[in-house]
Amino acid sequence: MANVQVTTRQAYRRTDDYTPGKPRVELVTEDLPLPLAATSVLIKVHAVSLNYRDANIANGGNPWPVTPHGLPCNDAAGEVVAVGEGVRTFKLGDRVAPIIDTENLTGRESKRSWLAADEDGVLADYLVFSEEKLTKLPVHLDWVEACLIPCAGVTAWTSLLGIGIGKSVLIQGTGGVAMIALKLARTAGLKVILSSSSDAKLERIRQQFSNPPLLTVNYATSSQWHEEVLKLTNGAGVDLVVEIGGTQTLVKSMKCTRRGGTISQVGYLSKQNTDDLAEFLPLLIDRRINLRGIDAGSRLEQEDLCAALSATQMRFDDVIDKVYDFCQADEAIEDIWQGRQVGKLVIRIG
Most-buried pick from 9, 139, 142, 160 (CB within 10 A)? Predict the structure, then answer.
């Protein structure tokens, strides 16, 4: 094993205090798990990106149990600074990221373990992971861009899988998954319709992705927004919906999905009410919809995304809204909780 120069790390742990105005995280100093196990890798973290689930967990809203006072965030990019004696996949200096479900290596595992929920997340300046839970990162991306890959990137990638060139997709929202899905869909030759509740956000993105012109729908000003989507597809409906709303939007998403089409259920950002699902089963059967749950992806899928990004030299600099310093972690969590961003929020470390 290479000589390890550091023995402690700076990390943010959740306070689990949901009082309005109180910090959601606090900075702590803690020992690293040294010496490294034979197959473990020590990573110096350079950037961590935020997802809505980070703020949701920090504010007590996660629908699944979480480890008390755990480390938030599951998107990180860093470099290998030490390896255990049995490590064969990585060497010093490699650019790496952990997968966010550390049990999901191939997609066939029966167990799960999510970073920042079932186990500690990645909001720290150093991390230790078993080599099997890491993938290499594309070398053309800087740290701030590369840290978008494990959660938002892989989620967008798996949401779009299996949809052929020339097909149509409705992407909901303007957050990180939506913006990366937009870029991937355009590169894959898909016709994109983007929805949001903000005309200002839609106009900003239309200008950013102007060729070919981006089709948009405001679901706040049009209560029957699914009808608008149908009009944009000549009544047929889209081939795919990247669905982030949940119960409040799912039925309308089904109504504007073509018969035999697919819905990738990514999130549950709207207020959840099962009464909104009264038409669910008739629509599912009548429209022959393939409804699939997207839980990010496996290590293999993360490797596939990284290979695709390297092949296309795709950049993510245009989907990053704001970059924070490490000391601004609590501010960043509050900003994403309030939905102030268009695209991704990133915390730079070191």
Answer: 160
